[in-house]
Amino acid sequence: MNEQSQFVIDTRAVEELIVERAKRSYARLPMLEVVFDRFALSLSQALKTYLGAVVDVTLAKMDYLTCQDAIDSLPEPALIGVTEAVEWGGTIAAALRPELLYSILEITFGGRTVPETPRSPRTFTGIEKRIGKAFCERTLAELSAAFEKVTPVRFEIGHLETNPKALMLGPPTSSCARAVLKINIEDRVGEMVFLLPTTALDAVGDVLSQQFTGGQLGG
C-alpha cells in the first residue's frame, strides 16, 4: 500500500469519526438539568416520609445519548414504568434497578436488620411489581411537582416492562436525556433511571433548553 492510499484511508476514517460524533452530539437541556437537580433534593424528604426510613437521594448523572444506547444501558431484568407525560403528549421511562427494588422491599417489610446480600437476576414476582410500581408513582408525583413552575405535567404509568428490549421510546438513533438517581435507603444503595426521549420533549423543548440564571424556577 502506497502513502497516497494510506492517506485516503486515514482521511475516510477521520471523516467517519466526525460524522459519528456529530450524530452523538446532542444539545443540552439546561432547565431540565436544574429540574432534576432540585427533584433529587426534594425526593429525599418525600421518600423518607413514604418509606419511614432515612433516605438520601443524589443526581449521579445527567447525560444525552441515543434512545438505543439509553435503553441498552438498563439491566435485564429491571422494573420499568412506561409512563405517559400527559401534557407533553409523549412517553418516558422510569426504571428501578433490581438492587433498589429489593432494598425497597426489605424496608417495606421490616427487613432493616437483615444484611444486604447479592442476588442473582430473576423474574420479579407480582407483589414485587406492585410495590415497585407504587414507588415509581410516588417518585413521579414528586417529579411532576418539580416541573410545576417550569412546564406543568402529569406522569401516568401505562404499564410495566421488565425487559428493556421491549421498550419503544423513539427512533433508535434519536436523542434521549438520561437522569440517574443514586438512592441510599439506610445504607442500601441502588439507582433509579429516567429516560426522556426527544419525542416526549418536543412540545417543551424551547422551555427546557433555556439557561437558568438563578432564583426561582419559572420566575
Automatic annotation (TrEMBL):
<dbReference type="GO" id="GO:0003774">
    <property type="term" value="F:cytoskeletal motor activity"/>
</dbReference>
<dbReference type="GO" id="GO:0050918">
    <property type="term" value="P:positive chemotaxis"/>
</dbReference>
<protein>
    <recommendedName>
        <fullName>Flagellar motor switch protein FliM</fullName>
    </recommendedName>
</protein>
<dbReference type="Pfam" id="PF02154">
    <property type="entry name" value="FliM"/>
</dbReference>
<dbReference type="GO" id="GO:0071978">
    <property type="term" value="P:bacterial-type flagellum-dependent swarming motility"/>
</dbReference>
<dbReference type="GO" id="GO:0009425">
    <property type="term" value="C:bacterial-type flagellum basal body"/>
</dbReference>
<dbReference type="InterPro" id="IPR001689">
    <property type="entry name" value="Flag_FliM"/>
</dbReference>
<keyword id="KW-0145">Chemotaxis</keyword>
<dbReference type="InterPro" id="IPR028976">
    <property type="entry name" value="CheC-like_sf"/>
</dbReference>
